[in-house]
Amino acid sequence: MNKSADQQAEVFLLKAKDAEAMGTPVEDGFLVHKGGLARKEIAPSARDSVSPVRRRLISEGVLKDEGAQLRFTRDYPFGSPSGAAAAVLGRSANGWTEWKLADGRTLSEAKRVARGQGEPMLSEAKRQQIVEMSQELISKGQLYSDAQLRKYYDRFRERFGPDALQALDGESLLTLMHDHSNRDSLVYWLEYKNDEEFDTRSFGGIAGGSALNFGVFRRAETGTWAAPGKGHRPKDISVEEAVELARAHRDQLLKGIQILESLPDDASDEDYAQLQDQMDELAPDVSKRAWGHKYFSLLYPGKLDDFHNPGLQRFHIMKLLQIPPSGDGRYICTARFTAAAKEVGLPMSQLTGVLNAVHGKWHRYWRIGTRSATSGTSYWPMMRDHGCVAAGWADLGDLSWVQANKASREKLKKLFHEKHPSSASAEGRAAREYLNFAATISEGDIVWAADGARVLGIGRITGEYHFDPAVDFAHRRPVEWLSLDECKMPVTEGLQSTVRELGKHNENIVETERRIQEGAGLETAGRVSTLKKPVRLDGIPGRIQAVLDRKSQVILYGPPGTGKTFWAERAANDLAAIAAFGRQFEELDDAAKRTVTGDGTTSGLVRLCCFHPAYGYEDFIEGYRPAAVDGQLTFELRPGLFKKLCRDAEAAPDRKFYLVVDEINRGDIPRIFGELLTTLEKDKRGKRIILPVSQEAFTIPRNVLVIGTMNTADRSISLLDAALRRRFGFIEMMPNGSVLRDSQVNGIPLRAWLDALNQRIREHVGRDARNLQIGHSYLMQGGSPIKEIAVLKRAIRDDIIPLLEEYCYEDYGTLTRILGEGLVDPEAQLVRHDLFDEGQEQELVDVLLSPFSDITQSNEALSAEESAIGDEGDEDDGVDEE
Q1: Whole-number Å distance between alpha carbons of 634 and 637
Q2: What HEC string does 122-150 produce?
């Protein structure tokens, strides 16, 4: 077994009565050195665990009898420090405290498994952040209460606890444990169960990958059982073999339960390190898998966290600005989370839910070089000022085709061999780095822009890879710079690489997080930077921004009244303002706003049009139009709206131009776009084509972006031209009652009423009912929910009822089932418009609520009423003035 220089330097000693040995931690366990002496006598309590190991070592000649002791005849690797200590001492032992360096430090202290005596897990700022977030999530109903969590835990233990597993054998055991098609099986509950009986998502995800991760599974196609074979490929096995695997898993689960039962409630860092050793030795086939860890965590939620991936555990620990303990495994980090849970007074499941909300999705950390390896030129000023990280070798061409797989890596290796021939290892390393840059790095990842060991900037990736052939460092990823304070790497790594994932030294990641969280700021050399910080929009505009970054065009689609045009215009205005001025539209002065929207005589950066059946190529691209010349009728060639936009964009490449196409599905899209449909694609932008009418060369610039809206009540997205669907991204806009908040008009809770109305539509209108729902904007005015009954009456009478009449195709029976008999007379086939007359408000309210009587008991209605009562109370609490 190979030992690194660091490991060779760290020699640990274990010394006790009749026992003395030296050893070294290694990558996959602990190595006891040749010459060590083990106590021959075995303690009675350890005979079941230590005796079999001793017999095997003696039979293999590893241990030689020397009277009262046994001598190690050669170096021998054990699976864990505790296993090595037990073999030497002849009793159960915690190797993390038994093995010590010459200076007296224990293995636990040397490997930073244990935190300092009395050292809190959380800083005061972190503790406060977690407490505040937990209160917010609980108030929103996004965290389960202690009582509900206990019900879930009890239900799981009743179905799959030790008593249930011990009571079964044979095929019954196999089916209960490993049959994914059985919705009452253990694996189904752990991975997919999501209903009122048990919500597995709230206890940490293990979904993803194949069923091989469970060690045995039943094939969906044939029903035969399979297990991992050679090269981790599935191989079919007999039912008897599958039963044996299930028994082995059951027995290891029961052994793990015994170990966890003996773990004290106030277990220390060293106790959890020993737990890791015991699990690895006694229950390796289940404890080393995510599903096994989740099983144990559901039985012992106070002792184990529900982050079932070791990388995710360490991610959250470093986000808490702590160095994770050295060593692998799913149990060695747990003490960090139990300590944090006690410090904030939260159950473990609530704590992990809060940490997910505070820290966001898991992401990676990268070092990106800023200096050209060939010319020595530093490209950091360009990266800083343009909000990006970049890499050279533009002659490789656009790498948008690269994917994070072996085929792309091999293709890149050939490309490097062709363009920059070198040794096979150098070409392979370069291919791996550029594959990471183009495909592996993801939005949200953190990057260092570094020059040698100097970190010049810390940023967050905000978008996809793109290629700019006009510059030297052409391969780029957009970045939001979080800190421009220059610093030195705590521990150097990746100095010879252009692109290198960080992680070898946790100190680097913790220092990065400290600088981000403590607000090192966009400052450098003692002065505030003039850098314009890239702006990322939130909510629906943020989704539009993300799709445009990826595709350059997007369509918002959904039922009428869902705010498609509103959000399209708002996003276009904000994005154009950000690109031109570094600020959102509402933050601009009047002159800058006119630059974005135009002033009535001059077009702005954002332009609007509406497609309709008569709209054609000549309106959009170019065509001949009648004109009077010297009193004679003639035809002259005129550019269309889109051609003008593209010409203006070519003349101002530093700005972005947006075209908002309302009702895009009402036009004949192939006829309107013509040959330009191909060049709309992002990777074909800048490609020259010849327009058939004018015979002019024409391109669609990269700084032209298109936002369309589509009313699905008119036409389903599936009916759109296939070529258009490939070139556009799509964002669905459905009715969103939450924007109506707690609004109530004359006792009608708007959100609950709209939700109930749409439920009736989905039940009664028919096959395409989902696309025919009523949007929330019909119950809004000026961006806020309707407040007055007069306005609500007009919205229902003039907008909602005509829509429903159209949907029902004069079927007044269906219309009655949606709106109720009080508002619709099915026999006379008419709507009672007299209820909307002045003075009929109370009867109208009664009629509107009668089909949905249960909404007055809904959470939304109760919340609306509570809000209204609060307002009245405020008025009544005043003090009379004299």
Answers
A1: 10
A2: CCHHHHHHHHHHHHHHHHCCCCCCHHHHH
